[in-house]
Fold each of these.
Amino acid sequence: MKTKRTKIAALLKSTQQDVEVVAKGWVRTKRGNKQVNFIALNDGSSINSIQVVADPELIGEDVLKNITTGASISVTGKLVASQGAGQSVEISASQIEVLGVADPEKYPLQPKKHSFEFLREIAHLRPRTNTFGAVFRIRHAMSFAVHKFFNDKGFYYWHTPFVTGSDAEGAGEMFRVSTLDPINPPLTEEGNIDYSKDFFGKETNLTVSGQLEGELGALALGEIYTFGPTFRAENSNTTRHLSEFWMIEPEMAFYDLTDNMDLAEEFLQFLCQYALDNCTDDLAFLEKRLLDEEKLKPANERSEMSLTEKLKFVVDNEFIRLTYTEAIDILKNSKPNKKKKFQFPVEGWGTDLQSEHERYLVEKHFKKPVILTDYPKDIKAFYMRMNDDGNTVGAMDILFPGIGEIVGGSQREERLDVLTSRMAEMNIPEEEMDWYLDTRRFGTAPHSGFGLGFERLMIFVTGLSNIRDVIPFPRTPGSAAF
Ligand code: 4AD
Ligand code: MG
């Protein structure tokens, strides 16, 4: 009978030896001499490759010459205890079939260090490197953990639309969705583009957030969460912004702002603990990579904590909670502000915080994750619940080291009259939002929610510094390859 393929992760853990096995994967390296060849074989199931020992006489020089970095092969052989250092088992090959060659003159991934910039240009091949294999396995584990966390708590996964006919959220510039002929669109009598002739009979865009539709779910099912892609057409070319990113947005009936913060803190701690428990090998690899990188930096710029220490730190420490007003006081009197070291000086109450300010609070002042609450109403969205002072709203942003804002959320305005007067102040047409206002007209209830940027979480968990490197195919201004 033909032996079935076993994944390399399972082979490396196997305690059964001297049994025949079949492994399939891509060649990472091959070295050796006329007597013996060593092939490092990886199939994506683990950061670790398995060593294949090949006798040239048995396997054949004609086969071995095609076994180069990047080639795909099927190996049949015995799983045996390894003589060499670095692995406990290896495959002593009896037969190797080359499934797909990779011309060494042309294959762009060679067994050496490539820059992240170069690897972004070959994002279709970069998952075959150790670093990106680790990142994308962790990305899977974190997605699974998101669903586990909410499912275990009785939240429902609620699917909100990607194509939206409302742009009231105001979270960012939107991408138009249209099937009209761009060269010769139908026009109204006034000479504007006639969107009533468009596919959906109205102007439509890609969504910036599933929140407003999430609220509709929460006010029926109690506790829901969304987890899907969101799109923002802002021209932000930073290491923390994508034009297409994934967001997790839980929305809960009968939660006030404190309940909301408690849930968000527990959620982030759960995700970090899940990574520590389930991504051990990949985290160990990334931690070592980061340490090597840190060694190249001047001593005063090196991170004080290793990657796993950073994750444990989030799990073990309560997040600091303070109001925006308290934060502004700290920032105004801070050394970098007095010495004019901030690019955007903090002048007074009412200004929006920049990521340099958020990072100062987290990394220098508190040295802990921070939740800022009660922001000025003028720098936040219309749906946030007005506080009794009439100036601030029940918002909360969670700030993380190395990142700044990782979560944004609020208690929602459930009082119809307050909500509609805010909308009027902000020029949001009521008739377009009738469906949203119905939840406040019929059985309105206090409720809250937040959004976690999945790639910002991924930057934190993997220790990579650029958001383009934690999503398989990044979309950023000027770039939508693959
Ligand atoms: O703060 P934001 O804009 O909040 C919302 O969209 C709300 N509707 C969330 C809610 O209350 N349900 O975005 C939420 C999070 C940010 O904290 C950040 O982590 C991430 O989404 N984010 C981005 N991530 C990558 N690229 C971008 N351009 C991002 N913009 C926001
Ligand atoms: Mg925000």
Amino acid sequence: MPALVLLGAQWGDEGKGKATDLLGGSVDYVVRYQGGNNAGHTVVVGDQKYALHLLPSGILTPECTPVIGNGVVVDPSVLFSELNGLNERGVDTSKLLISGNAHIITPYNVTVDKVTERFLGKRKIGTTGRGIGPTYADKINRVGIRVQDLYDESILTQKVEAALDVKNQMLTKLYNRRAIAIEQVVEELLSYADRLKPYVADTVLLLNKALDEDKVVLFEGGQGTLLDIDHGTYPFVTSSNPTAGGACTGSGVGPTKISRVIGILKAYTTRVGSGPFPTELFDADGEALRRIGGERGVTTGRDRRCGWFDAVIARYATRVNGLTDFFLTKLDVLTGWEEIPVCVAYEIDGKRVEELPYSQTDFHHAKPIYENLPGWSEDITKAKTFADLPKNAQAYVKALEEMSGAPISAIGVGPGRTETIEINSFI
Ligand code: GDP
Ligand code: IMO
Ligand code: MG
């Protein structure tokens, strides 16, 4: 059985954690391939609620092996506190595997993330302040620290030295901050080595062998398509590739092994941080979506910006990810509206535009063209099949499917594992 990718089709927080957890029981491996603890995935199992940041959501399913791939950036202190939190609640985390090639979020990169944002002022990205951007920047600049470096003190010291060389100049001369001591950083990083050791593995070899043996591998994306460094709303993006291609580079599994790419799609739209968002609402409807949908960030506690569904974005996600399916989430949140506007195209400088413009300026000028779909008032949280949904809810789903370009194979009608309508099976 080949591999599946599950990723965010909008600006993150689509419900990837819930969808991954749902499939956890049917797969052998769940692999994070990019991002780090900028992610916040809420998973509800029975009466238990878990907030995961760095760990793959498969960690909650005892049968499957959670893997942190080479494309992920790892903050060891966050990793340990997340593991401790789960262990205290009786979750066995001993099967976790971490790529020795994954990069480490060092304390100085968290500092650099925060000072850079402060320095940008009004132009800030609104990052999660977790050191994600600077860590990926170090990776690309070839001054990153990898998990494997923790096991060679002399190499580690040289690498930290190289990384701090320019940064200390920048911190002291530009940002008016104190320089960071190399020894202190090395000491902190070495203090993580022993506890990390049992988890460190050649995950590339392991995952490819597993696929050769017909095991099922699920790649779980962090963030979302429009936050992708290449395909998102640059520069208001994260610093990695949440899109489907990222699953290959971030894990060492080739594209020929991937048979299914599932886009997680919220029945409306949200975004955290700065950047363009054509369907954003600043009125009572936006406030209602935020309240009913519980749209508050799990990582930073920031209110999420809310707006109506944007089919232009969904079509774009289908294209850049080669989506085979959608998992539509939070349909229940839309219960109670008499009419639900859906953005079908944009108006840009007086012209109707059907597809996402590649020009940043055009996207900033995009005004949504809405079609109003009839709403429903019946409670849908107990629906188990598509036929259980009120006619207007069915029509809403069908309309979204048609506009978005891939079949909607599952529908979320509540946060719990079982509050899902499965239309086509994923595995
Ligand atoms: P992720 O980052 O993509 O995993 O999404 P988040 O966990 O940040 O945000 C999604 C939120 O919606 C979480 O609180 C989930 O528990 C919740 N959720 C997921 N699917 C559904 C659904 O179908 N209905 C409702 N009401 N809540 C959902
Ligand atoms: P999940 O996995 C929503 C946003 C931040 C900011 C931008 C860059 O829960 O969907 P970063 O710290 O990554 O450099 O911030 O990306 N962002 C997210 N927004 N969900 C996420 O993750 C996000 N991770 C980062 O708000 O706008
Ligand atoms: Mg989230």
